[in-house]
Design goal:
It is a single chain. By secondary structure, this protein is an alpha/beta fold. Helices cover about 30% and strands about 20% of the residues. It contains 18 helices and 24 strands.
Amino acid sequence: MERQEDIDDFLSKEYIHLEPEEWLKPGVNLKSLPPKFKIYSKSLNEWLFFQRNPLSINYSFVPRELLKKFPPNSGTYEVADPQNPVSVIVPSQNNNIQSHAIHMGAGIAGPCMTPRGVELVIANTVYNPNIRWIILAGNDSGHFAGDIIKSLLLFGIDEDRRVRNTICPTFPYLKNLPMEVIERFRQQVEAIDLLKCSDIEIIGFVTRMCMQESENAYNMSVKGRKYHLYNKGAVSPEPMLFDFSLFKMGAIFDSYGAFSGTSINAMTVSDAFSNIQGHIMQFGSWGKQESTRMALDCTNVSITINNVEKDRIPKDYKPQAWIENDEGTQDYLQKYSRWVYLFPISDVKYDPKIKKTVPKLIENIEYSYGTRLTAYGFESCRDKYELQSIRELVDGMQKKFYEKVPAFEDVLGFYDGMSAVQSKTFNSLLRLAKGCATIVADGIGNSNRLYVNLQVPSIDLAKDSPYDMHNPCFCYYQPNPRFVRYGIVEHEERKRDKSLNPRLSDDESEKLKVFLSSNAREREEARFSEVKEGWFLFPLMALRAHDAMAFPSNAAGGLVLSEFIAWYAAKRTGKKVEIGNYTQFASALHIVDYALDKKIIDRLNGRASLK
């Protein structure tokens, strides 16, 4: 694909090419900028064009003394000078972008992940009349919070308080704010769309341009929109205070940003992986585990993935020491998820001769999730013939698929063979799959009886002391089959690429399915290019303890269970069954001490109250 840099260059010879970092150095006066210039964003693959357009206006500021409580509502922000006119919002948290924006002069910077977060941004912004610019930068969140803000400022809300024209797939309603607060926000600020831009120098440069006096104002063009950049002064002489606390509101739609009870809605596994690490670092509690390790953890965290097909493997994610590259990670996750979750007494190891991940037999059954899922009762079974037969069947499969990944048809054949010898053990996973097939065949659109619990109380809770208990980390799974209506949203970048090159094939991973309520109005459905209906699983995987660094691996396991069940139901019924939103719940979500920098550990130990 031709770079935008090359396409635009010959069209813009009159614009001088500048490197923004040269103009961000201490002592450099932006009044010396040329009348016309351009800077190139690698992350956007696009030029930003600037042209001097000075004004002569009088403006004033609300003094700092009146803004001592800014921001009035708590959240995950970095706050600097409240007299500065710029707020930088990075919907999917990026501490590097946020910190650099503050260093460049932003009055406040931070993430905004949910519609509730948008309401928090609005309430805090109207309290500070000096803020006239919101720069949206970095990646958007799973809730498309950046798009909500952009659409709100451009189009407002309808009579149901839904933000018009937003592509937010979840809950784009501003239910908690009075209309006067929303209108003040729309009157006060203008949003600069730098979403997908991760170039910190460019974000910092635009921040600086918004702080210039009107005599040094510039027009900026990016993403097909034009902005007139300068410090506009306060929109009002007085702050507008709206208390957006739970105490005041009684109830708040959605939740994010707490030690316990947080819901994180992410677009992909990769997005969630980065967000949960930032969440734990921000809100985690430092303490000792039964294993005597120290960990920073949060409790009762729910993570929902909206697009289960795209970006399952975070870049440079290496869950094992033997993995050297992304291809090795993909090989590992494919084999780990199938052997550990779909087969009894199985795990994986590294074979240095062939330099691949391969299966192996194991004895520590409580962490062999496939044993509890497909041969429940194996540990307490006294039928030596049954135990030996299962071991031989597993060993045969591992030898047959030592280097390859067994297909679901192969897995089902293994289950058929194992069922012939099972009398004391039980295959819960196969029973779930058969149950889902019945649900789909009979059209039971709201099934809620299918789930599996991995704990064996007589074994896992046999000891009085928690030091001696070895419950499986993965403890509960529910497939939640549903027949639902859904609309299709295609990424804007993909639409643009297809318009430039009609021969591009449809990429389902670039399309987002937005699931609709039964009472959705026609105008809500009209915003989609297509509205369909079909069978989906909305799986819930629960873990009693969840190492955040293992999130992609655990998600791979939960998704392979869901994919097997969906495949089986489709095979038995002839109907298409897909995976909808996938939710992973962690009773304790943590980062253990060995994964933290020593300086962080020293600081946490210095603050710890439990010795």
